[in-house]
Specification:
The chain starts with a helix and ends in a 5-residue tail after the last helix. Helix 8 runs parallel beside helix 9, helix 11 runs parallel beside helix 12 and helix 12 runs parallel beside helix 13. By secondary structure, it is an alpha+beta fold. Bound molecules: (2S,3S,4S,5R)-3,4,5-trihydroxy-6-oxo-oxane-2-carboxylic acid (GCB). Keywords: Glycoprotein, Glycosidase, Hydrolase, Lysosome, Signal.
C-alpha cells in the first residue's frame, strides 16, 4: 500500500500520539554512544566475585558486603565480565549455584566528571541474570528484575561525595526464578531426610536451555550533559522514491531546548534536516533498508544526528546523539510478509546466546563468527529464541540486513499460577522494556511475546489477549506473534496474532524414527491452520538432534544422517506451501547449546546444524544449498552474478 506523502506524515504523527499512551516506563534507554558531548568508559575485564553459599543465601545482605571491599568480608575469586559465572571455575557448586552472587570492581573516574557538575554520569548494565542490586561506594543506586535487558542509574551525586574520584561498584545478582519471573521457574525443597541432606533444593525450569547467570553484557559508565537527549523514536516509510523518517525526541534536564535533527547518508552528505522535538524528514532518492540477499546493497543505514542546545542560569548545554536509521516498511497480508512492499520469505535460524566457557556472556569473536556463518549459510533472518539478545547483535543485524523476530523472555509459562496479575503486569512491563530498547532497529520486523506458553489454560486467554494488545499499542508499526507448539495452545493464541508461528518436531517427539509421516502430518497441520485463521504461517522451529560424528545409514535418530533426512522431508512441504501462505522456515537450532542435565540431552541439546564450537554438521550443507537456492528464487536480483554462492 503506497499512501501519498502527506497522508503518511499524518499517519506518523498519529502513531507517536498512540505510542505514549498508557506507558508503565518513564524515560528512554538509548544505546550508549560516544559523541562530542558524551563519553563512554567500559568496565569489561576482571571483577572480583564471591557466591553467597550461606544456607539462606542472605549472608551478604545481613553483613552488608557492599559497604566494604569484598575481599575484606571473605574469600574472593577473579571473574570476567561479561560472562556467565557457571563454567568459569572447576567448582560444580559454582556451575549449578542458585542464589546471590557478588561482583565488585574498583576504579578511579576522570576528575572532570567529579568537578564539573554539568556532567551527568550514568552507570549502565547491559544485562545481568536475573535480579540485580547495584551499589556505588556502598550507596544503593538501583535494582532491576529481568535477565536480558539493560538498566541504568545516575551516579554523579554519589561519586561527587568522594573528591578523589575513587569508585567501588558492587553488583549482587540472583538467578532464582519464581512462578512470577520471566522466564518462570520454581524452587523445590526436598524434605525427605532419608533421601536428601538438610536444606537440599532444586530449581525446576520449564525451558530447554541452561539457566546461565551472572553479568552477561557490558557494564559501563557514560556521560551526558545535564540537559540531554533522553530518547528518540523513529518510524519510517516511503512513497515512490521519497523516504520518510518521522521522529520524536524526548529531552530531560531542560525546560526548553532547541533541537536540530539532521539525516546523513553513508557518503556523509546531509539529506534532510529539521528543527524541534518531532517532525518528518523527507529523503529524496532514498536508499531503502533491504534484507541480506534481497538487494545488492543490503542493510543501508543513514545516521540521524540529534543536536540539543539548552541553557540555564549558570551555563549552556549542548548534547549530540547519533542514531543509525534504516528506512523500510513492514506489512502482513493473509498470505504474505512484506518488507518495502515486496514479499519476504524468512529462510533462517533460531539461535541462543550460548558458547563454551562464556555461557551467555557477550563475546565479540563469537558474534562475528556467527554472522559469518549466517552469511555462509545464506540465512536472511533469525528469531531471538527465547529472550532478547544483546543490542550489539541487533546492531550487526541492522548493518548486515539480517531480519529479526524479537522474542521476549516469556519462555516456559506452564504453571497456572504464572497467569495471574503479578505475572501479567510483569510481562507488560518487560514488553515495554523490550520495545523501548529495540524499537529503532530496522532489522526487527516482528515482536514475539512468548514461546510455547500453556495457552490452553483458562486464564491464558485474557493474559495473552492483554499482552498482545499492549505490545501492539506500544508499537503499531510491527506485527506481533507468539510461538506455539501444541494445537490446543495455537488455537487459543491464533485469533490475536498477526502471523502464526508453528513449532513441531514430527518424527522426533512424535512418531520417533518415522520420517515417512512428516509430509502428511505437516501438510494437514498447515492447511488446517490457514483455513481456520487466514493468516500467514512461519515454521518457527523444526529439527532433530544429531550427535556430531555419529553416522548410521539407513538413518537412525541422533545421527547426522537422520537430522538430514528430517530436514529434507520438511523441505518438501515447505516448497509446496511457500507458494501459498508459508512465509518462512527457521531451523531449530543454529548451533548445539547447553541445557540442564537430563535423560533426553547428551551434554546439551544437539539439534544444532553447527556444533557448539561452530563447526558444520552434514545438515548445515543441506540447508546452505537450500537457502542459497531460495535466495536466488525469491531475491530481487540476479543473485548468482552478485552473490556467488560458495557451494
Ligand atoms: C521446543 C522449544 C525449544 C527446545 C526444542 C527442543 O519446542 O521451543 O526451546 O529446545 O523444542 O529441542 O526440544
Amino acid at each position: 500500500m503506497c499512501l501519498p506523502v502527506r497522508q503518511q506524515v499524518l499517519r506518523a504523527l498519529w502513531l507517536f500520539a498512540v505510542l505514549d499512551a498508557g506507558l508503565l516506563l518513564d524515560g528512554g534507554m538509548l544505546y550508549p554512544r560516544e559523541s562530542s558531548s558524551r563519553e563512554v568508559k567500559e568496565l569489561s575485564g576482571l571483577w572480583v566475585f564471591r557466591a553467597d553459599r550461606s544456607p539462606n543465601r542472605k549472608q551478604g545482605f545481613d553483613e552488608a558486603w557492599y559497604k566494604r571491599p569484598l575481599e575484606e568480608t571473605g574469600p574472593v575469586i577473579d571473574m570476567p565480565v561479561p560472562a556467565s559465572y557457571n563454567d568459569i571455575t572447576q567448582d560444580p557448586e559454582i556451575r549449578d549455584f542458585i542464589g546471590w552472587v557478588w561482583y565488585e570492581r574498583e576504579l578511579v573516574v576522570p576528575t572532570r566528571w567529579i568537578q564539573d557538575e554539568s556532567i551527568r554520569v550514568v552507570l549502565r548494565v547491559g544485562s545481568a541474570h536475573y535480579n540485580s542490586v547495584v551499589w556505588v561506594n556502598g550507596v544503593n543506586v538501583t535494582q532491576h528484575e529481568g535477565g536480558h535487558l539493560p538498566f541504568e542509574a545516575e551516579v554523579g551525586d554519589v561519586l561527587r561525595k568522594d573528591p578523589t574520584g575513587s569508585c567501588r561498584i558492587t553488583i549482587a545478582v540472583n538467578n532464582t526464578l519464581t512462578l512470577y519471573t520471566l522466564p518462570p521457574g520454581n524452587i523445590q525443597y526436598m524434605n525427605d531426610r532419608t533421601r536428601y541432606p538438610d536444606g537440599f533444593f532444586v530449581q525446576s525450569i520449564y525451558f530447554d536451555f541452561f539457566n546461565y547467570a551472572g553479568i552477561h553484557r557490558p557494564v559501563l559508565f557514560y556521560t551526558t550533559p545535564k540537559a540531554y537527549v533522553d530518547d528518540i523514536t523513529v518510524v519510517t516509510d516511503f512513497s515512490d522514491n521519497t523516504g520518510l523518517v518521522s521522529y520524536k525526541v524526548s529531552v530531560k534536564g531542560a525546560v526548553t531546548a532547541a533541537l536540530k535533527v539532521t539525516l546523513i547518508d553513508k557518503q556523509g552528505h546531509c539529506v534532510a534536516s529539521s528543527n524541534g522535538p518531532f517532525g518528518v524528514l523527507k529523503v529524496q532518492d532514498v536508499n531503502l533498508w533491504w534484507p541480506y540477499l534481497t538487494h545488492e546493497n543490503p542493510g543501508y543505514l543513514y545516521s540521524m544526528e540529534v543536536r540539543l542546545s539548552a541553557a540555564d542560569e549558570r551555563t549552556t548545554y549542548e548534547d549530540v546523539y547519533t542514531l543509525p536509521v534504516g528506512i523500510r516498511t513492514v506489512n502482513v497480508t493473509s498470505t504474505q510478509f512484506l518488507i518495502n512492499n515486496k514479499p519476504f520469505y524468512f529462510h533462517g535460524v533460531n539461535k541462543h546466546e550460548d558458547s563454551d566457557i562464556r555461557g551467555k556472556g557477550l563475546d565479540w569473536p563469537l558474534i562475528v563468527k556467527d554472522f559469518n556463518l549466517l552469511k555462509w549459510l545464506g540465512a536472511n533472518s533469525f528469531r531471538t529464541s527465547h529472550y532478547p539478545y544483546a543490542e550489539e547483535i541487533l546492531q550487526m543485524c541492522d548493518r548486515h540486513g539480517i531480519v529479526v523476530i524479537d522474542e521476549s523472555p516469556a519462555v516456559g509459562i506452564k504453571d497456572i499460577r504464572s497467569f495471574g496479575n503479578v505475572s501479567l503486569n510483569h510481562h507488560l512491563f518487560v514488553m515495554e522494556e523490550l520495545v523501548r530498547r529495540d524499537k529503532n532497529h530496522p532489522s526487527v520486523v516482528m515482536w514475539s511475546v512468548a514461546n510455547e506458553p500453556a495457552s490452553e489454560m483458562p486464564p491464558a486467554d485474557y493474559y495473552f489477549k492483554t499482552v498482545i494488545k499492549h505490545t501492539r499499542d506500544l508499537d503499531p508499526t510491527r506485527p506481533v506473534t507468539f510461538v506455539s507448539s501444541s494445537n490446543f495452545a495455537r488455537d487459543k493464541g491464533a485469533p490475536y496474532v498477526d502471523v502464526i508461528c508453528i513449532n513441531n518436531y514430527f518424527s522426533w517427539y512424535h512418531d520417533p524414527g518415522h520420517v515417512e509421516v512428516i509430509t502428511l502430518q505437516l501438510n494437514t497441520e498447515y492447511d488446517n491452520w490457514h483455513e481456520k485463521y487466514k493468516k500467514p504461517i512461519i515454521q518457527s522451529e523444526y529439527g532433530a538432534d544429531a550427535v556430531p560424528g555419529v553416522h548410521v545409514d539407513p538413518p537412525v535418530m541422533f545421527t547426522e544422517e537422520y537430522q538430514k533426512v528430517v530436514l529434507q522431508n520438511y523441505h518438501k512441504v515447505f516448497d509446496q506451501k511457500r507458494a501459498q501462505y508459508l512465509i518462512g522456515e527457521l531451523i531449530w537450532n543454529f548451533a548445539d547449546f547447553m541445557t540442564t542435565q537430563g535423560v533426553t540431552r547428551v551434554v546439551g541439546n544437539k539439534k544444532g546444524i553447527f556444533t557448539r564450537q561452530r563447526q558444520p554438521k552434514a545438515a548445515a550443507f543441506i540447508l546452505k544449498e537450500r537457502y542459497w537456492r531460495l535466495a536466488n528464487e525469491t531475491g530481487r536480483l540476479p543473485l548468482w552474478t552478485k552473490y556467488p554462492c560458495p557451494l
